[in-house]
Amino acid sequence: MNKHVHVIGGGLSGCEAALQLSEMGWKVSLYEMRPIVQTPAHQSDSLAELVCSNSLKSFRHDTGAGLLKAELELLGCRLLEIAKEHSVPAGQALAVDRELFANAVQERILKDDNIRLIREEITEIPDGTCIVASGPLTSDRLMANLAQLLGENQLFFFDAIAPIIDADSIDFTKVYAKTRYDKGEADYLNCAFSKDEYLDFVQALLEGEKHEAREFENEFFKELNFSFYENCIPIEELAKRGIDTLRHGVMRPMGLEAPGSDDKPFAVIQLRAENKDKTAYNLVGCQTMLRYPEQRRIFRLIPGLENADFLRFGSIHRNSYLNAPTIFNPDLSLKANHEVFIAGQLAGVEGYMESIATGLLVAQIISGKLKELPKETILGQVWRRLTETPQKGRFSPVNANFGILPAGDTRMRDKKQKRLLLAERSLDCLRAQLGQIT
Ligand SMILES: Cc1cc2nc3c(=O)[nH]c(=O)nc-3n(C[C@H](O)[C@H](O)[C@H](O)COP(=O)(O)OP(=O)(O)OC[C@H]3O[C@@H](n4cnc5c(N)ncnc54)[C@H](O)[C@@H]3O)c2cc1C
User: Fold this and answer.
1) Ligand 1 pocket test, candidate residues 12, 55, 149, 221, most atoms within 8 A of CB
2) Which of 19, 73, 220, 255 has its CA 20 to 30 A from that of 356?
């Protein structure tokens, strides 16, 4: 058997994949284009550079990020080990000294006899087994090659993400299920605004503090102003167009009166279920550039969401990723070429740990070490999301959050306890699969 793999991209997912495959006896050619070709966000030549925050998020098992880490530990994640060796104090989160972390990953790769690091921009997918791990800032020429292979409409170049909240935190005495004009199933939840509530909400959006765009992002936001991207305009930008813009657009109340009531709402925000179990809801049309604390404050002004618990905040940023569920086989290889696998942010996940996790996943799938993951695990659900067609709308990147896990048997009131039980269930199932429970 030819045990050689090309890994394109020496970032988080590519390095994890390379180390995993090397350990399993594979020869790896790892291609990194920096410093010959730079990305707009990376600052150094190092492998595994963290482009922004130095935090890999929480360790706590009652958070999605914490549970993902616990699962990755069981699965033998190498970059997580290195991150822990180079952590800096950050309470219950894992934050690292970014330079020490990147240097340590690079050193591990350079010392590894099975891995050959090649500083070169790959512009065409090579023949043979290959992992494309070139990230959200994949070079233009490689994207063009992927477009040829997969079709232009399978590539996305930006993310417009609305916040996702925990269903348990919704006030169901105020929010009601209904579709517009009662056409079809009542799939949406509706948050109805009075005139005063609407005016306060719009004012808060206008005054809210926004994320400062970096220079390369400004170029990208200029692009967003073309009408083609109208659906991705941040809600606070739409609010600037006039006091009535939102209630004539995304917050249109027509046909959304509460069942059994003659009162006509002044405006409505709809919530769309994120999963079959309806444990998480997306705030439709609320993609935003507001800072996270501002999102918490302002979206809690929505009637019924006063105590909303945010599983994911909204964002809009440059992000190349693929239309994963349409183009992947169940093993994360491409339908268009079974020898090509995609890992990292390009595969349709979001976040440092999620990128590392898919590097591990793809490597263990290729080597035959992993064929499936329990559906109770957060990584198993991330995997499922990448390969199963979404219920509604355009595929958007997946992160580790409790909303993607199948609901537990009990409807416990204490959310932390409930999540800890789900986490325990996940880890038990994973240990059982790995033969660590007899
Ligand atoms: C500006 C920005 C900020 C982000 N901030 C955060 C954050 O704070 N927290 C968080 O959790 N996530 C963040 N992310 C999202 C994501 O977690 C990171 O981008 C993460 O590094 C993705 O890992 P990756 O392995 O997919 O890609 P990367 O780590 O970016 O690695 C891809 C590598 O491939 C190389 N490459 C690209 N094209 C080619 C080519 N053609 N040939 C050879 N090499 C190539 C690149 O130079 C790069 O080194 C951010 C993303 C961006 C764009």
Assistant:
1) 12
2) 220
